[in-house]
Design brief:
- It comes from Clastoptera arizonana.
- Pfam families: UPF0240.
- Residues 193-220 form a coiled coil.
- The structure is a single chain.
- This protein has helices spanning 2-13, 17-25, 37-49, 52-58, 62-70, 83-94, 124-136, 143-150, 154-163, 182-190, 196-224.
- It is an all-alpha fold.
- Among the domains are: 124-164; 183-212.
- It is elongated and about 120 Å long.
- The chain starts with a helix and ends with a helix.
Length: 225
């Protein structure tokens, strides 16, 4: 049933379609769509305030028309260049223009000059330098010296040397000659420990005795079982 109705409606739509189309085309001026109520109110207000505005839009403005006639653009074809010039430009575009070797920065990025660093700031290179000096001479190159040299806060310098340090080589075979950290050395000085080597020897002796006691205890338990 639906198929029959759709077929009938299609025939009704196309019935006498050419005559209806010519009837619409033959009209001198098409009928405009009705305006919205708000648009009609605005048009009426414009007519009251400026009655000549609508009539001026429908008339031809001779002055504007003359201005449009005076505006024009002149264009010229570019001069043809010689084949040799175009060929040289093409070759130059293929070849590299910068022939200097690429300079890689020390830390992978460009660091500003010392004069351009603002007070209270320091670069990675400067941080590595004063951390190395502090690690080599902790009593001489203190946080106060670092703060004065780099114009930073002393608390910041103390935190940097406390929580950051440079890599160092420690030989595990030479336990008695290992370089102690600055804070450990200060604690040993406070405890009046002068012979660090003897202290390390006593500690190793105590550890060996503990290990021996544990081994003897394991042997006794095996014999009992």
């Amino acid at each position: 049933m639906g198929k029959v109705l759709s077929s009938l409606s299609r025939h009704v739509k196309i019935y006498n379609v050419e005559e209806r189309a010519f009837k619409v085309i033959s009209k001198e001026k098409p009928v405009p769509a009705p305006l919205h109520q708000k648009s009609l109110q605005e048009i009426e207000q414009l007519k009251r305030e400026n009655p000549s505005a609508l009539s001026e839009q429908q008339e031809k403005n001779e002055q504007l028309d003359q201005h449009l006639k005076n505006v024009y653009v002149l264009s010229h074809d570019p001069k043809k260049k010689s084949p040799e010039f175009s060929k040289s430009r093409e070759i130059a575009g293929l070849l590299p223009q910068l022939r200097k070797p690429f300079i890689d920065h020390e830390y992978g990025y460009f660091e500003p000059d010392k004069k351009s660093i603002a007070p209270g700031k320091f670069t990675l290179k400067q941080a590595i330098k004063f951390l190395s000096k502090h690690q080599e001479q902790p009593d001489v190159y203190t946080a106060e010296v670092i703060a004065k040299e780099h114009k930073i806060d002393q608390n910041l310098a103390e935190n940097v040397i406390r929580y950051f340090s440079m890599f160092g080589y420690h030989d595990p075979r030479n336990k008695t000659n290992q370089k102690l950290e600055p804070n450990i050395a200060q604690k040993l000085q406070q405890l009046n420990v002068t012979n660090v080597k003897a202290l390390m020897g006593d500690y190793e002796k105590e550890v060996k005795e503990k290990e021996k006691q544990l081994q003897d205890g394991d042997k006794k338990s095996d014999n009992v079982t």
